Amino acid sequence: MLQDLKLRPLLKSKAEIWLVTGVAGFIGSNILETLLNLDQVVVGLDNFSTGRRQNLEDVKGCVSEEQWSRFRLCTGDIRELRDCHEAVKGVSFVLHQAALGSVPRSIDDPILSNDNNVSGFLNMLIASRDAGVKSFTYAASSSTYGEHTALPKMEDTIGRPLSPYAVTKLVNELYAEVFSRCYGVNTVGLRYFNVFGPRQDLNGAYPAVIPRWIQAMLRDEPVRILGDGKTSRDFCFVDNAVQANILAATSDNRTNQVFNVAVGEQTSLSELHNSLKSNFTKIVGRETQSELESGDQRRGDVRHSLASIARIQEYLGYEPIVRVANCLFLTMKWFASQDCLSGHRCDSSNGISL
Fold first, then answer.
1. Does the CA dihedral 143-239-190-51 come out positive or negative?
2. What is the pLDDT of residues 163-216, one digit of tens each?
3. Does an H or E element contain 268, and which?
4. For the chain, percent helix, then strand, then coil, each to nearest 5?
5. I need a labelling partner for 105 at 20 to 30 A (CA). Which of 3, 51, 98, 156 fits?
6. What is the pLDDT of residues 116-154, one digit of tens each?
């Protein structure tokens, strides 16, 4: 999909300077890879609290030596305003991905989530304002919809937050709107819906459901499903998030907007499990020995999630990869190829992040 990105000829003709915060993370490293393949100049900011240096090594192996020379890493923390000012010097476009994700993590430690997701976000806005960047695109979240149950989720209608993490993401949107109004900063929020794909973290305390289940199947460990399996999500391949960031940053139709980034398809946990089982057989050549275990519904979770993507299609020309099953195959194949899966066990008692 990204090979056919509408902006490819324009970006290839002129190298801009981009800042990607959280560059060593799952989404950040995928954005980095795409920008370097488009011959852009990229500054990356990361404190490696959740980001992985191996992700950057993976990117290095996916681009040419000349393209890799266009990347500069700043090891720093968005909670330090000085680090933010240093990273944003000379930058045209900011893609702010750095945050502490996960609903259960925020319930366990709301202060840490607030420090990173609110104070750190404000620091990046201030630094971007002072540097006069062309645009500030940030990772928002579908958790902002909170208790609002109507489907599909429309950008203009949200409910009360259900977790500290959701509160931090709502505050991000409010701060972005204020900075747009008061200081003229061009801000775009991207409400991610359950992004998955290669380089997604499965070794942290709160692994997302897809990499955790893939890991369990590859190791013949039990797959733990929360609730009755009917809980559903709009699972979104990481290439869609990358596309949305680049389109949002460079579009003229962007000031003070918030967009859903999703596929517009609903997949239940039971359907997800069946699809992963089928892909496991194709990749490994045998049926998985993992048994299915049931667990209680998790605090702070919504029952169903489905996005309307009409706004982002209209304003930015965004077009997602529609078939989730194909993307699950690519994701499982990537994880199966990683040496980190060999000979290791993980703690099945960890919370699983949807």
1. positive
2. 999 999 999 999 999 999 999 999 999 999 999 999 998 765 556 889 989 988
3. strand 267-268
4. 45, 15, 40
5. 156
6. 999 999 999 999 999 999 999 999 999 999 988 899 999
Could you tell me which CATH number the domain at 16-196+235-261 has?
A: 3.40.50.720
Task: Determine whether 165 is an active site residue.
Answer: yes
CA-derived radius of gyration, the chain: 19
Contact 139, 188 (CB under 8 A): no
Whether cis (ω within 30° of 0) applies to the bond prior to 222 is: no
Quick one: CA torsion of 149, 108, 50, 45, rounded to 10 degrees?
A: 80
In whole angstroms, what is the distance from residue 193 CA to residue 258 CA? 13
User: In this structure, are residues 15 and 40 in contact, taking their beta carbons and an 8 Å threshold?
Assistant: yes
* Tokens 């077009």 belong to residue: 319
Domain boundaries, the chain: 16-196+235-261
Nearest to 125 by CA among 76, 168, 180, 190: 180
Among 127, 100, 170, CA closest to 19: 127
- Report how far residue 105's alpha carbon sits from residue 34's, in angstroms, rounded to the nearest whole number: 29
Distance separating alpha carbons of residues 125 and 148, to the nearest angstrom: 28
Select from 207, 210, 226, 209 the least CA-distant residue to 292.
Answer: 226
For the chain, helix (H) and strand (E) counts, in that order, are: 14, 13
DSSP 38: T
Residue 260's contacts (CB-CB under 8 Å, 6 or more residues apart) are: 142, 153, 155, 191, 193, 307, 308, 309, 311, 312
Question: What pLDDT was estimated at residue 348?
Answer: 34
Residue 210 CA to residue 192 CA, distance in Å, equals 15
Beta strands across the sheet bearing 71-75: 71-75, 41-46, 17-21, 93-96, 135-141, 187-192, 257-261
Q: Which of 138, 165, 175, 318 is catalytic?
A: 165
Tens digit of pLDDT for each residue in 218-248? 888 888 887 777 888 999 999 999 999 999 9
Render 79-115 in DSSP notation, one character per residue.
TSHHHHHHHTTT-SEEEE------HHHHHH-HHHHHI
Main-chain phi, psi angles of 260, to 5 degrees:
-75, 135
